[in-house]
Amino acid sequence: MRQVFAIGDIHGGLKALQELLAVMPLQKEDTIIFLGDYVDGWSEASGVIDFLMELESKQSCIFIKGNHDVWCLEWLQTGTVNELWFSSGGEATIKSYAGITKTKKKQHINFLERLRDYYVDDDNKLFIHAGFSSLRGPQHERYPANYTWDRTLWEMAIAMDKSLPVSSPFFPKRLQLFNEIYIGHTPTVKYKIDVPIQAYNVWNIDTGAAFKGKLSAINVQSKQFWQSKPVFSFYPNEHGRYI
Predict the structure, then answer these.
(1) pLDDT digits (tens, 9 = 90+) for 167-190
(2) What is the Rg, in whole angstroms, of the alpha carbon atoms belonging to the chain?
(3) CA-CA distance, 68 to 38, in Å (whole number)?
(4) Are 130 and 151 in contact (CB under 8 A)?
(5) Measured on CA atoms in the order 108, 111, 113, 115, is the torsion positive or negative?
(6) Other Cβ atoms closer than 10 A to 56
């Protein structure tokens, strides 16, 4: 049976990604859904993009767009350095592109340009980097930046009264639209938890790879998950997104 796996925010941690894929029980027919933020943090951002493009040639992959990927794409296209991006991991990404050829740069631009805002599978599961605000779903989102920046979807899910039934008219409509929702963007280590967290039907798979956490993958059917070692342990002379 074909399995589907979701992988959280990588943030330039190529070595952690390689370790994670090595311990996952991947079969050729399986699909991996990456939840965005491939760059910014550790020193191998450009290497992560190279690796993902190669992986896509032999494994079914779906790539979601993260806010850090938007920043990186803008820089690759224009050469303009966003100050917030630079101080949020972009500096390491810029260094990782030193000496890149024009051909390789164009390939990376093409990869980043075709990232998806979100993906809905045949079982009505939504995969999105951050969230959406429209009560009719991401297909009707009036503010596209919410796909990569919104935190209210996750904050709503974790703040809700656990006794509130789904049938209640007070149950948030956004959470009723999908059977399950998979996100990244907000590190679970913010809550001192280093594994994927479920709140109602929302699964947060960003376990803080950019900081002191691990890189995580989850089987969306069984909910079994796998993790790398803490990503910072692969890069002992770097600070990641701790400035």
Answers:
(1) 898 999 999 999 999 999 999 999
(2) 17
(3) 8
(4) yes
(5) negative
(6) 15
| Contact predicate 111/52, CB 8 Å | yes
Q: What phi, psi does 66 have (nearest 5°)?
A: -110, 165
Strand partners for 180: 125
d(CA 87, CA 71): 12
- For every residue of the chain, DSSP letters joined together read ---EEEE---TT-HHHHHHHHHHS---TT-EEEE-S--SSSSTTHHHHHHHHHHHHTTSEEEEB--HHHHHHHHHHHH----HHHIIIIIHHHHHHTTT--HHHHHHHHHHHHT-BSEEE-TT-EEEESS----TT-GGG-S-TTHHHH--HHHHHHHHS-TT--TTSTTS-HHHHS-SEEEE-SS-GGGGT--S-EEETTEEE----TTTTS--EEEETTT--EEE-S-GGGG-TT--TT--
- What's the mean pLDDT in 3-27? 98
Assigned token pair, 56: 């896509």
Is 188 within 8 Å of 208 (Cβ atoms)? Answer: yes
Q: What is the mean pLDDT of residues 192-198?
A: 97
Q: How far is 51 from 46, CA to CA, in rounded Å? A: 9
pTM beyond cutoff 0.85? yes
Would you say 2 and 222 are in contact if contact means Cβ atoms under 8 Å apart?
Answer: no
Q: Are 198 and 158 in contact (CB under 8 A)?
A: no
